[in-house]
Every structure is written in C-alpha cells, then in structure tokens.
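agent: user wants the full assembly modeled, not chains individually. Plan: 1) parse entity lines 2) check alphabet per entity 3) run joint structure prediction 4) return tokens. Steps 1-2 passed, two entities, 547 residues total. Proceeding.
--- entities ---
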Amino acid sequence: MVKVKGIFEKAYLFVILAILYAPILLIIVYSFSNSSNFRFDEGFTFEAYISIFTSEKSPALWDAVGNTFLIAAVSSVIATVMGTFAAIGIFAMGRKARRVLENVNQFPIINSEIVMGVSLMIFFVTFAFPEGYLRLIIAHIAFCTPYVVLSVLPKLESMDPNVYEAALDLGANPFKALVKVLFPMITPGIVSGFVLAFTLSMDDFIITQINKGASTGINTLSTYIYSDARVQGLEPFWYAIFSIIFVVILALVLTLNLVRINRRKQKAAEEAKI
Amino acid sequence: MTNAAATVLKPKRRFKLTKRVFSYPYVLFMLLFVVIPLVMILVNAFLDADNTLTLENFKDFFTDKSSLIILANSLLVGVITTAICLIIGYPLAYILSKMPSGRVLVLFYVLPMWVNFLIRTLATKAIFIAIDVPLGMGTVIFGMVYNYLPFMILPLHTTLSSIDRSYIEAAQDLGADSSTVFLKTVLPLSVSGIISGITMVFIPTISTFAISQLLSNGKIFLFGDSIQMKFEQGLYGVGSIMSLVMLVFVLISNFIINRASRKSGLSVGRSLW
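--- prediction returned ---
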C-alpha cells in the first residue's frame, strides 16, 4: 500500500516536471530544424543558429542585445552603490525613520509592474524627461535598488558591531574603518544584491515596454521579441535564440543554487563536528 | 518580542557605526521616482483632459460596460488560475517536503521562473499553434498557470518543509490516521504558505500584460493589458483610475500576506528572492 502511494507520488512529480519543461525541450529540439512548424522537413541543421548572424533582422537583434546589457550594467551598478549606502544609512537610523524607509523600499517590490510602469511614464511625460536611455535607466534603478537594500541590510544586522569599533579604537579613521572593515564584512550581501539587480533589469519587459517611448526605436531583447513575434509569430531564428537563453539561464541558476546548497551543507557539517 | 528587540537595538544606535547621510541620495531618488509618480497617478485620476478637477473619470470607468467586463474577466481568470495552481502546487510541495532530497528537487520546479515570461509564453504559443489547439480562454489559463505555478510552489514548500516533524509524529502516536494527521496538523500549519501562494499568483495574473493577448490572439484582454492600452491612447484619467483599482488589490493582498506571516512567525513571501 505504502509502495503504491510512493509510486503514485513519484509519477505525479514527474508529470508536472515534464509539463513544465516540455515547451522548453521542444523549442530546443526544433531549433535544429530551421522551421516554425515543429517538423524536420529540412532534416537536422544549424541554419537557425547561423541566421542569428545573417538574417536581415540581425542588426536590430544585436542592437537589442547590446541595449539589454548596457541598461542592465549601468542601472545595476548605480543601484548597487546607492542601495549599499542606503542600507548602511537606514541601519543607522532610529526605529521610526527606519520603519518608514523600509516600507517605502518595499513598495516597488510589492507593487504591480504595470502600475509602476505607468506611474513613471506619467512622471516622465509631465516633466519632459528626454525619451530613451535616461528614462529606461532611471526606471530600472527604481525597481532594482530595493532588492539591493534588502540583500545588504541582513548582512549589516548579523555583523558584529564591535569589530568596527575595535578598528576605530586601534586608530583607523572612520573612512578607513568603513573601507577596510565594514565593506569586507557585507560584501556577500553587496554581490548578491548586484547579481539580483542585473538579472531583474535584464529580465524586465513590462516597465521597459511602457517607458521606452515609441519614437526612439530603442529596444531591449524582451521588447524586441514582443514587437517582432507579436505580429508574425516566431521565425526559426527565434527558436535558436530562445534555446540559447534557456540553456544559459537554466545552467547558471542551477549551478548557483547547487553551490549555495552545498556550501550550506558543508557549513552544517562543520558545525556538527564542533 | 518587542521588549527584547528594543534592548538589542538600543546599543546599536549608540554606535557611530554608520551614517544616516549615506541613505539620503536613495531617499531623494525614491521620493522623486517612486513616491511622486504614484501621487501623480492619484492626482491624474481626478483631472480631465484640460487639467481641471473632475469626478468624470470615476463615472466613466464605473459606468463603462466594456472596462467593467474586462475587470470581471481578469478576476475570473485570476481566480481560476490561482485555484489550479493551488490544486497542482499543494500536493507537489507536500510530496517534496516529505522527501529528503526535496530541497534540491524543488529547484527544478522553480527554475523556469528565471526565464523571461515572454519567451516562455511565446514558446507555449508556438506549440499550441503547431498542434492546432485553438487560442482562447483555455490557452490563456494554461499560459498563466504555466507562468505562475512556481510562485505557488515556492512559498508552500518553504512553509511545509519548516513544519516540525514531531508534531506529525505526535499526532500519529496519539492514534490519528494519515488523513486526520493531514487535515488537523499539516493543513492548519501551512495556512500562511497557502495565503502567500494565493496572493503571489493572483496579483501578477490580473495585472500582467501581454500573456493573455498573445495566447488568445488579441481576443482576451485583461486588466493589465487595458491599463497599458488606456495610457497608450493618452487616456491618462481613466488609466489612472484603473491603476488605482489595481493598487487597491496590491495593498489588500500585501496586508493579507503580512498578517498571515506575522501569525505564523514566518516571512514566506520575501524568501522568494
């Protein structure tokens, strides 16, 4: 009886997993068919991958890829610097001020993207911000920084404040103590905040689509996909691009998480030894 | 709790560990680009095309049949999607929480979440077209469930796997059969996860934009789509009203999540990131 239940449970887990990954696997398989109709009429071919570079759309495509990385890089660097200092400042505040700021910080996280997007659009239009990169970078900083603050704050909280004081007692000036003592202690939080900000910025579609402005012609990868695929459906070269994105992202996230789980296990094992 | 926290916090404040000034650029930034834009939504809701004060926008929205139908449609799709996610996700999270390797396995179920939703939606759309499934309500709901199932599984798994096994063993020792153990022990202890899961699926489902358009060939518009459309057409007044309605949903759901997590002492919703 127990055994039957176990098999049933495993089957259930497997079916859901299969459904979740079926579209991804199908796209990857048929990216080698150079067709949009899920048939291997031309046999196995790398044509779809080659057309990423040779299609008439490649310039626009690579432009969009470039924009995606540019906007993600600029906005995540600014978000990380501003967010780290903000976390240090918030940490030093009194309880009331801190609660107010933490609530404001939470807002872009809980708010729906569409509302955040249109509110920024009204703001940019009213105050005549120039269309294009400036609007997009500001918008991306606005939704990324809260996550940086949230990854740095816990590191500050778990830090031993005496270490910083000891540095001051031993003659370090406050600036040196900050750079040599405080920053190294919260570096893991800063790094994970940066990675998160970069990923979120690259992944964003809704806020970018609303704020990119029709006249500028600026596209990120997601808005370019939307404008191209909405009209005619997916051309073969999109299968190739999607496959590359699937493999890269799934491999990256899986490795990062497995490393994290492993490290946690090691830590637990070491603590158990002690 | 508050007393203990106060005594712990006090000495920290004495330290000149850090300076508040550091946060001022961020405070200014947030004021400019988060708070003021939201206030402008509120203001715009009461302005007409000539920037004079009016309540016309409210009247327009609440008497316009088509926008109310879109709202009702969105709520319907939201409720159905959330229900399916819960029905699929709860047993899944429960089975995983009982397995020793569940913590690693759950990763594979939330992994697709990291791929842009537009790409996943277009991939499913291509497959629907290839196998001749007519695009409509069915495909929209499939797409929503496909996109948001991870948001249901994650909080449920976090809550379920943090339940102290000894409660379950105690219930068994006291003679409860397995269904009683589940109904009287596991289920009540996982309520906070259920609530977080529900709100984390429901809100994005009704507010997202593009998924329903793409998966229904433009036949089904949900609330997020029509907010975007109103702004694209320059109808800021009505668009702002709709954004306010959306905002009310967001605030209610956040309130519910907070209450649920405070009760159980677990902050499930935030552990996603």
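agent: reporting back. The two ends of chain B are 26 Å apart (CA to CA). Chain B touches chain A through 82 residues (CB under 8 Å).
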